[in-house]
Structures are given as C-alpha cells and as structure tokens.
Amino acid sequence: MNLKVEEWIRRYLPANLFCTACILIVSYITFNATNDRVLTAFLSSITGTACYYGFILIRDVIKTIKKHRLESKKYSFISFSKNVRDMIVEFGFSEVADTFIVAPAFMYFFPLIIGDIVIGTFAAKFLSDVIFYTFAIIAYELRKKHLSD
After folding, report:
1. Given this model, what pLDDT does residue 30 score?
2. pTM above 0.90, yes or no
3. Among candidates 105, 96, 101, which has minimal Cα distance to 38?
4. Angle at CA 27, nearest 5°, toward 21 and 30?
5. CB distance 81 to 149 below 8 Å
6. What does the buried/exposed string (b/e) look like for 80-116 if buried means 16 or more CB atoms within 10 Å of the residue's CB?
7. What is the pLDDT of residues 46-95, one digit of tens each?
8. Taking 80 as the threshold, does the pLDDT of residue 149 lie above it?
C-alpha cells in the first residue's frame, strides 16, 4: 500500500502545488480588483483546472516521449491522443463534479464563512481536493489495469 501512496503523491502533488499557488494568486488579485465573490470563485476554479491539467499533460507527454525513444518508436498524434484519452478516463468524472459543482460552491462559501479570501479559498481547495482525489485515484487504478498503450 505504501508504494501506491508514494505513486499517487508523485503523480498528483507537484501539479496540485502548482495549481494551488495559481489559484491563490488569482483569487487574491480578482477579489481585490472586483470585490466579486462569484467571479473570484469561478476564475479561481478555471485557473486551477488549466494549471493542473496543463502540468499533468506536459509531464505525461514527456514521459511517453522518453518511453517511445527507449523502444525506438516515434511519438505521434496517436500517442498524444492516448495521453489525452488516459487523462479523460482518469479525471473526467472527478473534474466535471469538481469544476462545476464542488469547487465553485466551496470557494464561494468558505471565504464567506471563514472571513478571509485567501484562507477560505485554501480551505475550499483542500476539501474539494479530498473529494476530487478519491474518485481520480479509483479511476487512475482502473485505467492502469484496463487500458494499455
């Protein structure tokens, strides 16, 4: 089990730290510029999505290119399509629920309840991640088991 946890941490933590930093910056700037909690919640959520998946996709593409080189294969559009397919299988359900329901609601209400935009956004991000990763890890393990290159 420890090896699985280490694998999940290596897979998800760097992307999560990067997107968390981006979310906190965007929420701080947006709220201070507009004083609009709804706009802040949605821009923070969209920023997190773009930063997270951009990070994961770039890392997966680089990993696949290295693997293909070792096997003397070319990285092609089909290879890229498989990288994208794997991300959709792994994150599809979790992301739809997180982006359109869980994260915006948490990012709206938690800063309001806590009384601080940055701390509330951080708490919202943390708690929505618990829900997100529960489903993403299940899908990741199923994808590894049932989908191959």
Report:
1. 96
2. no
3. 105
4. 135
5. no
6. eebbeebbebbbeebbeebbeebbbebbbebbeeeee
7. 898 899 999 999 999 999 999 999 999 999 999 999 999 999 999 999 98
8. no
Terminal CA-CA length for the chain: 25
Residue found under tokens 């080189």: 69
Single-letter code of the amino acid located at 122: F
AA letter at 29: I
| Rama region for 115: left / alpha / beta (φ>0; ψ in -120 to 50; rest) | left
Per the listing, tokens 């609601």 go with 105
Q: How far apart are CA 102 and CA 104, in angstroms?
A: 6
Report helix angle 103-114 to 117-146, nearest 10.
150
**Are 118 and 95 in contact, with CB atoms under 8 Å apart?**
no
Please check whether residue 21 is in contact with residue 44, taking contact to mean a CB–CB distance below 8 angstroms: no
Local confidence band at 122 (pLDDT 50, 70, 90 cut-offs): confident
pLDDT over 90 at 121, yes or no: no
Q: Token digits for 18?
A: 């990067």
Judge contact between 107 and 38, C-beta under 8 A. Answer: no
